[in-house]
Amino acid sequence: VEGVPVWSGDSQRIACVVEGTTIKAWEVATGRQLVEIKGQIGLNCLRFSPDGKRIFSGRGFDQTIRVWDAS
User: Fold this and answer.
1) Which pTM does this prediction carry?
2) I need a surface site. Which of 18, 36, 47, 58 has the fewest CB within 10 A?
């Protein structure tokens, strides 16, 4: 997952994991950073909700999924 971009369903937003502990998301049209979520360890899954308003992150070692505001 690290460094691999994940696109929202409408291709208006993009997100990726940085340094294995941080989620960053940007608005594609402007390049504006939407969110930076720090402190997540062991991320191995990242997806946008169908409407692009939320980001789901998963960690395999404790089998948790978290939901974040992507705006």
Assistant:
1) 0.83
2) 36
